[in-house]
Every structure is written in structure tokens, then in C-alpha cells.
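Write out this protein's structure.
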Amino acid sequence: MRYKFILIFAILIFIFNPGTGNAQFFDSLMKKGMDSLSQDKPLSEMGTSLSEDSIISGLKEALEIGVGKSIDFTSRLDGYVGNPKIKIPMPEKIQNVADMLGRIGLQKPVDDFVLSMNRAAEAASPKAKEFLLSSIKQMTFDDAKNILEGGDTAATDYLKEKTFDKIFGAFKPTVSEMVNKVGVTSAYKEMMGQFSSIPFASAQSLDLDNYVTDKAISGLFVMLGEEEKNIRTNPQARATDLLKQVFGK
């Protein structure tokens, strides 16, 4: 298109001032313009914006890849407990329990309880994949456009804001099952039993299922954000042509 405008401009110059120099200038522009027009380059090679479908598909693909990699990481042994960014800590509501038991040499039941919560999250995290992928499919073009122009974790932040509560409700039964299966409840009872034997000791009640579910999902979003950031900033992480097109612009 730019050569068409140049040609029109050159023609006007030639009409109103048909000197020798201008004629030569016109001939040169005409040749360049005709060469360019004869090439018929595709729109993508001429810097035209990507289509709506490409933008949406690219972002969804990035998130789907991120979800897969994140869950592969979190579901392995020590996926949570071995990663300081997502390790599930002692709940603040009963931090006094851990502190007091530690002071009297009873740190083991505390450590066992923390480890069991992280093991439950590791065991449950594969079940979160279907809920996350389902939520990704609901992304609109307006959402995708804003996300593409946003920060390094804009897609993850959007997904977390829009779907956290929904995923929490759907994911909680799986976490509850794993809480019992890997021994979180028994570890909690063991720790609290040790604590209750201390005179005048008291602690707040704790909903184990809610706490572990919240921290498990939050950890998944942290890892998803890391994967999104990697795709946005590292060309080597763009494994498909679509990702290269969308995130290379």
C-alpha cells in the first residue's frame, strides 16, 4: 500500500512540474512501485495485525502449554515442598502451635504435618488440569487483546481472577480425598495432640481442606505465571508457529 501512495505523489509532482529531474525521479519510483505490487506479499509479511482467531488461539495455546508444564512440575515428588515459591507453609492461624512445639523440642510432628499438606497438593494437582483448561476455553477476543498488551503474567492474572473460586469449588473434593489419603489429618491430629498436652495451651480451629485447596491452587497459578512469562520473553520457549506469530509481534 505504501508504494501506491508514493506513486500517486510522484504522478502529481510530474504533472505540475514535469522537469527532467522529476521525470527521472518518477521513473525510479514507478519501477519500485511496480516491483513491489508484482510480488503480492501476504498480509502477515507486510506487518498487518494478526486476526482475532489467531490472537485468541495463540493465547489459549500458551496457557494450555503453561498448564501442562506447571502440573507436570507440581505433581512430581517434592513439586510443592521442594519449591520455596509454592511450598505450603504452616497455617498462620496455628503458627503458635508450631512455635511452641519447636521450643520444647517437638519439631518433628510440625514438620510431618507441613510435609503431608504439600504431599496432598502434589497428589491432587493433576486433577486441576481439566478445570483450568475448561476455563481457558471461555476467553474472548477482547480478553485476549487486553492480555496480549498486558504484563508478563497478564493471562495468568486474568485466569486467576476469573476462575479461582470456580476451580476451588471443583477441585476441593479431590484435595479432601488426598488430605485423608496421604495422612494430613492424622499428622494434624498428632501435632495438635502434642500441643494440647502443654498446660494452658490453646489454638484456633482450622479447616484443613480449605487451607490446602487454596494453597494448592495458588501454587499452580504461580507456576503458570512463570511459564507464561517464559513464553513471552524467551523466543526458544515458543514451540509452535502460532506462538511465534502471536508473541513475536
